[in-house]
Amino acid sequence: MANNVRELHSKTSDTEKITINLGYVDLGQVDLMVQEGFYSNRTDFIRTAIRNQLERHADVVKQSTARKSLDLGLRNFSREDLEEARRAGEMLHINVLGLATIAHDVTPDLARATIASISVLGALHATPAVKAALADRTR
């Protein structure tokens, strides 16, 4: 019976929690906009404001992404990917704008043997041991 139980939602989220500090007047204005029904909550207001700014500066982001050779979006590195790089004698230079994930079954030794550098603008998901092993290679 337990064999047919399936997880409906992934345990990993597609968002990252951040904390910001706002002045009381700014916060009050956000709350007023929510109260007046323009936004469903504070988070909705803040996400909309951020998206509007990113859209406003989309050309700069696009140019910088190309200039810095960044992979845009979600980039996953599995144990198999890293083992293949090791067999080929390659060292990876990871440059991601978005989310970079190093699989949970990647050992710190395998990460150090195959990742020469890692730069992530956004979030890096990896085990604490792998993050520690790559600390001197993280920009």
TrEMBL record:
Superkingdom to which the source organism belongs: Bacteria
Cross-referenced CDD domains: RHH_NikR_HicB-like
Name of this protein: CopG family transcriptional regulator
Organism: Bradyrhizobium iriomotense
